[in-house]
Design brief:
EC 6.2.1.5; 13 helices; Dna Ligase, domain 1; single chain; D-amino Acid Aminotransferase, Chain A, domain 1; Rossmann fold; alpha+beta; magnesium; Succ_CoA_ligase-like_bsu
Length: 397
């Protein structure tokens, strides 16, 4: 689960991280009072969407010469003018795609005198099986580009889970970021704070870009991006309350109600599979035969008829879907349950696109019998390769 920048900063502030004063608003009427509540005289007006690249983004409605989604303002009047121009319009960034995202929230923040911009993130480094800090002196830039062009400028410091962030770890991070004086002292407290927040709140990513050294020599978290492990949200009701469903795909929201693992993609072939590995293989083989998957959808090993029905309805609700591939290997999952769920869904929502079903495993003969006797126009497949060929051929006509 993702949250907005201002929410992430409030979470980190609760642990003692240095962040600027700021006010989130959802109406232009709130802009003046929000700005007047801050020290000033420099303000930053930030679009709050779940996507990066906001500063370089462009608003669809304002033309190519308009300012981006993060703007400096030198007066309260300037804040109000920017808010009126940004709020409610569609911001397009490199991460939103051409459709962009409507800006429904803005964060008005006190400005900062910046000396240097640094990059810091915490994530799970699966190569070493530990949580790790990833830091660079090249903050405020696209870290992917830095990694590609100058990988030597990115330093990873893995943390021993039994010891936490040690003085040795802090020294490595300070050295990698070239921090000294007050900034290095701030690092001694900040880095353990960020690690504590990451572990206690079950984060999957904590990114601070940029982490700044101000002209007074101290550190400040200038931006914050936080994602949480969905599987651990049951432990954090306070975090669940921060969820903004307007930033999520409606199909993914519906899938979450049934504990379905669903991710919308850009292709035209809908997939319903049991098991994440098999789902990935299914998407790969669809691409191998020249088409693109419309989604990742894992119904899980113990799905019920109701969950399968819901999954099928979610797939068919996507107008981009021109064909559906059901690929089930019945271990824990029973093929007859899948068959009953598919039939129930088709009878409820109809079937307007080609449907290929490949069943194998537990109760496979019963599953095939149920589908064959249903009267549905279903294309049967013997194996995954056969299924992929048939659905791609059916979609391409």
């Amino acid at each position: 689960m993702n949250i907005h920048e201002y929410q992430a900063k409030q979470v980190l502030k609760g642990y003692g991280a240095p962040v600027a004063e700021g006010v989130a608003i959802m109406s232009a009427n709130e802009a003046e009072s929000a700005a007047k509540s801050l020290p000033g005289p420099l303000y930053v007006v930030k679009s709050q969407i779940h996507a990066g690249g906001r500063g370089k983004g462009k608003f669809k409605e304002l033309g190519p010469d308009a300012k981006g989604g993060v703007r400096l303002a030198k007066s309260v009047e300037d804040v109000v003018a920017n808010v009126k121009e940004m709020l409610g319009n569609t911001l397009v960034t490199k991460q939103t795609g051409d459709e962009g995202k409507q800006v429904n929230r803005l964060y008005i923040e006190d400005g900062a005198d910046i000396d240097r911009e640094l990059y810091l993130s915490i994530l799970v480094d699966r190569t070493v099986g530990r949580i790790a800090f990833v830091v660079s002196t090249e903050g405020g830039m696209d870290i992917e580009q830095v990694a590609h062009d100058t990988p030597d400028k990115i330093v990873t410091v893995a943390i021993d889970p039994e010891k936490g962030v040690t003085s040795g770890d802090v020294a490595k991070i300070n050295d990698a970021l070239k921090l000294s004086g007050d900034a290095a002292k701030d690092g001694e407290s900040l880095f353990p704070i960020l690690y504590e927040a990451f572990t206690e709140k079950d984060m999957s990513l904590l990114e601070v870009n940029p982490l700044i050294v101000m002209t007074n020599g101290h550190l400040r978290v200038l931006d914050a991006k936080v994602s949480f492990d969905n599987n651990a949200l049951f432990r954090h009701s306070d975090i669940v309350e921060l969820r903004d469903t307007t930033e999520e795909d409606e199909k993914e929201i519906e899938a979450s109600k049934y504990d379905l693992a669903y991710v919308a993609l850009d292709g035209n072939i809908g997939c319903m599979v049991n098991g994440a590995g098999l789902a990935m293989a299914t998407m790969d083989i669809i691409k191998l035969y020249g088409a693109e998957p419309a989604n990742f959808l894992d119904v899980g090993g113990g799905a019920t008829k109701e969950k399968v029905t819901a999954a099928f309805k979610i797939i068919t609700a996507d107008p981009a879907v021109e064909g559906i591939l059901v690929n089930i290997f019945g271990g824990i999952m029973k093929c007859d349950v899948i068959a009953e769920g598919v039939i129930a869904a088709v009878k409820e929502v109809g079937l307007k696109v080609p449907l290929v079903v490949r069943l194998e495993g537990t109760n496979v003969e019963l599953g095939k019998k149920i589908i064959n006797e249903s009267g549905l126009n279903v294309i049967s497949a013997d194996d995954l390769d056969d299924a992929a060929k048939k659905i791609v051929a059916a979609v391409k006509g």
